[in-house]
Input
Amino acid sequence: YDTINSGIVNAIKVFNEVYPNIKVTHSSQGGYTDLRDKIAKGIRIGNKPTIAQVYPDHVSLYLEANQNGKFEGVRELDSYVNHETYGLSNGQINDYVASYFAEGKIYDNKGTLYSLPFNKSTEVLLINATWFEEKGLLEKYNLGTIEYSDDSAEFVANEGAKLSWEDIEEIGKFFVAQDEYKNLSATEKLENYAFSYDSEGNMFITLTQQWGGEYTKLTGENQGEFVFDNAQSKAMVQWYYNAFKAGYFVTASAWGDPDAYTSDRFVNGQVKMVIGSSAGASYNNPGDKFVLGVLPYPQREASSEQYVIQQGTNVALFNCETAEEELAGWLFMKFLTTWTDGLEVEKQPTYIWCTETGYFPILTSLRNSTEYSNFLEGIKIVDGEPVKEEQSLAAKVSLVGWEQRDAFYTSPSFPGTSTCRDEVENLIEAVLYAGESIEAAYENALNELQ
Output
């Protein structure tokens, strides 16, 4: 949160140099779920922000306030984008990474734009490369090597290095067969796993896709359907449950907090592999405890289709009491997400945001810029000359995450999908930790949605 707040504050400072007559008040509202719930409540009582960070399912929730001829929630953006004075040029629109811009149009079959891309990330696999090396697994799976110097050690991945889900299951079996695991007490075994997934929601949605099922789909004009109750999805949950019962796999909420992450156990060496957000990799940095490795998101060997979630927030504009406030909100959104002519690179808000937080660039021009390439490679310009420094973890994760872009996907979003995500998270927790059968968990999730 420190880096995120710093990125926003610095962007606001530059914005006020360009628009000194607009005052921006920035407020943090805890986690994204807290933010979603507070805005939804605020819409009902007439107290909402001018703009806000939003996930697609959040926008779908806010769109419920726009029904029955009323307009209380998020505002469509096409009229601003096409405005002859304040709109976006074709060059600005085409500069957005296409899949990121398209995500703002997934709410109806007309492709109405309700958000602009802001911070984008994906998920990656982080491994305890030291443990992998000790057990001969780096060599077995052709992952790479650890290069040692006098005062440092670094994992260097082989070209094309990756682990499949079948590999991860195999490593799980290997993990529980080791003497150090067998000698743990029953209580200690509940703290030690080969693999953990941070987000049950992402796990359910992505693996349903990978197993050949569907999660949601649009069936008509702004009408959607929850379609996750299918054989492929249930087969996936059964597979994960079997690995959990065998002691291989777990999820972050195993440790009693639904908002928990695996990072503490991973950094302590209790979990050997974790899937988490590419933008949150710094929380999994073990320092000197072991060498960290970054690998692409696992895919199934049995499938030719590849899926990895395109995640991160967008920014949405809310219906405001005055036209002046709404226009000011639009100008700030435009400034945050586009390239501003006349500003040096270091003052471009998209550059500030990416280099301070580790999120992906949303603009092709920034992605291809020399300045961003230098950041990724750990190069600084000193007195006009390039100086190679140690590559940051944020840069390593950004490189691996971006290599997955051809597999990025987003699920259709419509009123109700925000609740649907909550329910499939509950479904996974109920099966893994509450002893509920898979059939009952699906039935209960569907009943709650109805």
About this structure: The mean pLDDT is 90.
